[in-house]
Peptidase family M22-like protein
Amino acid sequence: MSFILNIETATKNCSVSIAKNGETIVCKEIAEEGYSHAEKLHVFIEEVITEAGLNIQDLNAVAVSQGPGSYTGLRIGVSAAKGLCFALNIPLLAIDTLHTLASQANVSDGKIIPMLDARRMEVYSEVFNAALEVERAIEAEVITQDSFADYSEIVYFVGDCADKCKPVLTKENFVFLEEIKFPSAAAMSKISYDKYQKSDTVDVAYFEPYYLKDFMMAPPSKKQ
């Protein structure tokens, strides 16, 4: 029997779950414009462990969203996950954020393309088939009318980019599953369990989130 704590902080959704043998038993999450991860994450961790009827020492592993996504959100999640793994001497599992997002689409055919907003018309995207096998690796790309035009089968888009991408991606075989906006820790449970069974872990000391693009800070405004 294994209990895995799943942490997802790559987007506006601060999400934490406890899974037993790959099945989510408790999940706490909130998506806010203000990115309240620093305030909510450790509270959610304590709550899911308590509601699952566990002690923190009962955890067998911690899984964390590795990105791409928000620089600050990823740092918060990874720091918390590393701290727990060090303290409890348990393995750390790194989960592809876009894989988690794609797994929330319950479809039987076509392609699944998870997209996360990367400002303006740029997105982080990846391409999966209906069996959740990767068919095109993660990219940061600018969306145009020609994006994904080579796909003739039905294409399901998930993520927080529908508002800006739907007016541009207008092919008849394009479907936006607009109810699926953010990756959830509840959807990490099966993925993290599969990794745990295969001992597909990362080095706690040296693991870093997958930012995809260098973090850019806006220059300070000049004083008048």
About this structure: The chain has two domains: 3-97+182-197, 105-176. Strands lie at 3-8, 13-20, 23-31, 61-65, 92-95, 111-117, 122-129, 134-142, 155-159, 174-176. The helical segments are 37-51, 71-88, 97-102, 162-165, 188-197. The chain has a mean pLDDT of 93.
